[in-house]
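DM from R.C. (forwarded with permission)

"hey, sorry to bug you on a friday — could you get me a structure for this? deadline for the figure draft is monday and I only need the backbone to look sensible"
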Amino acid sequence: MKRIRNDATLFALSVSIALVLSAIPVPGALGYFKPFWIALIALFWVIEAPETLGLGFAFVLGLALDVLAGSLLGEHALRLVFIVYIAGRFRLRLRFYPMWQQALFILVLLLNDRLVSLWIASLSGHAFPDYRYWLAPAVSTLLWPWVFLLLDGLRHRRSRSREA
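My reply, with the result:
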C-alpha cells in the first residue's frame, strides 16, 4: 500500500512537470524539436507501474493537454490512449529489453503517434507538414533513457527511504 502511495506522489509530480513542459511555448523552428513530454511520462508509468496509469486517465490527461495546447479537443487524448494501450500490451516484454531496444520501441510508438496525428489533421483539412514534423519523435527517443533513469531512480530512492 505504501508503494502505491509513494508512486502516486511521484506520478502526480511527474505528470505536472510534463504538462508544464508541454505548455511552454517554443519559438519558431525549435518547435519541431519539442519532445512529447506527456507521452514519455505516460510510457514510463505504464511500463513500470501500470496500476498508476490506465486508459481512462490517459484520455483525461490528453484532454488536459488539448486544452493547454489549444488543439482540436480529443486529438491528444486519442493519441495518448493509443500510445498507452500499445505500450501496455507489450509491457511485460518491454521491461526486460535493454535500454536501446526500449528506445527503438518508443521511437516506433512515437512515429505511430505522428501518423495518427497526420490522420486527424487530414480529416480536419490541415495541410501536410514538411519533413521537420518527424524530428520530435527522434528527440523524444533520445531523451527516453534519461527520463527513464531519472524517474526510476527517484522511484527506487523514495521506496528505499520509506522502508528504512
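R.C.: lifesaver. The radius of gyration is 16 Å.
me: no worries. The chain has one domain: 2-163.
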